[in-house]
Amino acid sequence: MKNSKKTLLIVGGGFAGMTIITQTYKQFNIVLLDQKSYFEFVPSVFNAFIHPESIFDLTLQFKQSKFGVLFIQGKLTHIENNIAYYQGGQIEFDYCAITIGSNYTNPIKSTIPKLSDRFIELKKTQQKIIESQTILIIGGGTVGVELACEIKAAYKQKTVAIITKGKILSTMPKSASVYAKKRIQDLGIEFKEDYKGPSLDSNFDLVFNCKGNTYENIRLDDNFEMFDSKKQFLVDDYLKIRTNSNIFCAGDICLSSQNETKTAFSAEMQGEIIAYNLKHPNKQIKSYWIPNTYIISLGGWKAIFIFESFTFGGFLPYLMKLFIEVVVVNDFRGVIGFNIIHQIMNYIVYMMLYIYMIIQLLLAIAPLGSKIKQDQRVELKRIQQEIEEFKKQ
């Protein structure tokens, strides 16, 4: 019997791509194109800088997928109409989802094709850290803070410093920045904010550049819209490339009207939207607001949980991140039961969002209600005075 399923090409096996696979593999013939042969749970990668063997707990090999995926290892070069070209061949598709994410400096976010070689890279990184007495982290965002805290917590005798041109966790709520700075100080990490001086690289044995993402240069049809300064794809409300309704885009490389913060969680949520729209072409849903949700590791057994403006830190966020890591990796591996747990976990986040919005609404209404009552008391007093004056007459 002829296979009547349509072909879905997924370019990039990151959080968005793997989410689409787990939710559409029954409806489509899926082809996965990625220049790496494995998925990596990047938010926990700094633990592998200290314990390289832990990388095998954070990864899965695409060829071992239990979802019936045809995996092709290669780098996408360009797309014309419904044909994707990569180094060494081409793939015809009915639908495509571009979820290639972003690049970061090695070894933080590696492009090494084989998992065994990635392990070797991490072993070399561990050895460099062990041999270095002074370590500089350039960048005070989530990546820089996590890396500095992990190294210092593991190697207390080493000198670890952070320099950043802005503030520590400048894009996070102030409470998160304050908590992180206290943890940095407690660990004995030196840091300097608003740094605009000369390069300090030569003063340190080892330097990690944690200044931000870059994006792949992919050539599409000439009429495809891109945000040129960052090479991100502009998409419509349904996360489709605006000039080709058969091509979706999610994750770091996607620029939507929601302008969401680029995290693993937001990539997953966009993956869920695309998966739904692929399965329900006549009842598609628009991209919705994705809450800013983070768990930032701070070395040892400490982390900080951030949900919009709400934050708290300590041991519980560390356990939460560990739980999320286990659930996500095992879901993507196809282990029975973990997909349901993963879905429940995401629903809980949105329940938290609804509760948060209700609380914010009540907090906004409360002062208004108080002012109305005050105005009513003033008006009542004025009427009473008028009545008293009338009685005197």
UniProtKB/TrEMBL annotation:
Signal peptide: none annotated. The keyword Membrane applies. InterPro entries: FAD/NAD-binding_dom. Residues 7-271 form the FAD/NAD(P)-binding domain. The chain crosses the membrane at residues 347-368. Keywords: FAD, Flavoprotein, Membrane, Oxidoreductase, Transmembrane, Transmembrane helix. GO terms for cellular component: cytoplasm. GO terms for molecular function: electron-transferring-flavoprotein dehydrogenase activity; flavin adenine dinucleotide binding. PANTHER family: APOPTOSIS-INDUCING FACTOR 1, FERROPTOSIS SUPPRESSOR PROTEIN 1. Belongs to the FAD-dependent oxidoreductase family. This is FAD/NAD(P)-binding domain-containing protein. It comes from Paramecium pentaurelia. The lineage of its organism: Eukaryota, Sar, Alveolata, Ciliophora, Intramacronucleata.
